[in-house]
Design brief:
By secondary structure, the chain is of the alpha+beta class. Helix content is 29%, strand content 30%. The strands form four sheets. Strands 1-2-5-6-7-8-11-12-13 form a nine-stranded mixed β-sheet, with helices on one face. Strands 3, 4, 14, 17, 18, 19 and 20 form a seven-stranded mixed β-sheet that branches. It has a two-stranded parallel sheet with strand order 9-10.
Length: 354
């Protein structure tokens, strides 16, 4: 090979190497926060319970600034463009049956918020978020809502990409101010408000409250400032409690927001005049008795025992649903205690400070 040819080949190699380096730099610039986030995913043993810390900005302020979203599809489109860089995924919130309870912590200061999530097989993820312009929080996400299942779990970098949507799919959680929230299904017409306000959906309403509200009153003001659109063609109500001990249930009846002071909830309306509409009255009675017997004060272990007492396993009835997780949030110590898959002998403890 002539000297000129060797020089040309060397030049081509240098250019190609420079292009590779440039591609790596561009890729890192576009995805470094996302890759760092995926690197935090951990699995609890061989269970389908995972944890993840979201690193960087998940764009929720931009989501609100664009007017929010009036449907799960619009949330999905935003996440695909903002977080997934065009990679597709599905977002679907199915019917769910749950129980919540808020009590004073009998072993110290603050309050405890307990929640059962009842549904079919649901890989779960505890997500830590620390938005720059909002409150840090812990939240529980059903990964089935964003495309995971028995044949797909976030156990590799490739399979984990969709978990980047997790901040937009919380079902319960607690923020650094001790504000707690959980969503429960009501079997009635879906909520679809049209008051000329910005739009919000069921799961993004939870993200809104966790990121922006320090108290129940602040949460209520936030919810009143948006038009609510419930997911999956269903209707839901929210149990919200804060570090002062105030607890309410927020319901939407005929597209009107209603607030009921209550320390527990299941899957029927509590607004006067509609008390018996829905299901879960038997579980509600158990929660009510536990609350009254304890005088509204329990230990974290007693709250978990109460949740276990109202857990559901309908597999014996031919239905493929059972309690997927039970979680107790401690508003003073900012911890979450989780039992997954009705295994109440195995307890996982998480801290917002980690």
């Amino acid at each position: 090979m002539s000297r000129a040819a060797k020089k040309a080949v060397k030049g081509i190699v240098i250019v190609l190497a420079a292009l590779v380096v440039l591609a790596v730099v561009v890729f890192w610039a576009m995805f470094h926060s996302e890759l760092k986030t995926l690197g935090t995913i951990e699995r609890e043993g061989d269970s389908a319970l995972f944890t993840m810390t979201y690193c960087g900005d998940y764009g929720f302020d931009a989501f609100l600034a664009q007017g929010g979203a009036a449907s799960d599809g619009e949330v999905q489109d935003f996440v695909i463009q903002r977080l997934m860089k065009g990679l597709p995924f599905t977002f679907e919130l199915p019917e769910l049956g749950c129980s919540t309870i808020s009590v004073e912590n009998a072993e110290g200061d603050g309050y405890l918020f307990g929640r059962n999530f009842d549904l079919y097989y649901s890989p779960a993820m505890l997500v830590r978020t620390t938005p720059e312009d909002g409150y840090a929080s812990l939240s529980m996400v059903d990964l089935a809502f964003i495309g995971y299942g028995e044949d797909k779990l976030p156990t590799s970098m490739t399979n984990s990409i969709t978990t980047l949507a997790a901040p937009y799919a919380p079902l319960d959680g607690m923020n650094e101010k001790g504000l707690c929230i959980g969503v429960l299904l009501i079997d009635t017409d879906q909520t679809n408000q049209d008051n000329g306000l910005a739009d919000i959906t069921t799961s993004t309403a939870i993200r809104l409250v966790l990121d922006k509200a320090a108290t129940v009153e602040e949460a209520l003001e936030l919810l009143r400032s948006y038009d609510m659109h419930s997911s999956a063609g269903s209707c839901y109500h929210f149990q919200i409690a804060d570090a002062t001990g105030r607890a309410v249930v927020v319901e939407y009846i005929d597209n009107e927001m209603s607030v009921v002071e209550s320390n527990y909830a299941t899957n029927f309306l509590l607004t006067p005049g509609d008390y018996d509409f829905g299901s879960g009255q038997d579980r509600f009675a158990v929660l009510e008795e536990a609350y009254e017997t304890s005088g509204g004060a329990m230990t974290a272990a007693e709250v978990m025992d109460t949740l276990q007492s109202v857990s559901q396993d309908k597999r014996s009835e031919g239905k493929d649903t059972w309690t997927q997780w039970s979680v107790v949030y401690d508003t003073e110590n900012l911890t979450a205690t989780v039992c997954y898959g009705m295994d109440y002998e195995t307890v996982y403890q998480y801290s917002l400070a980690e």
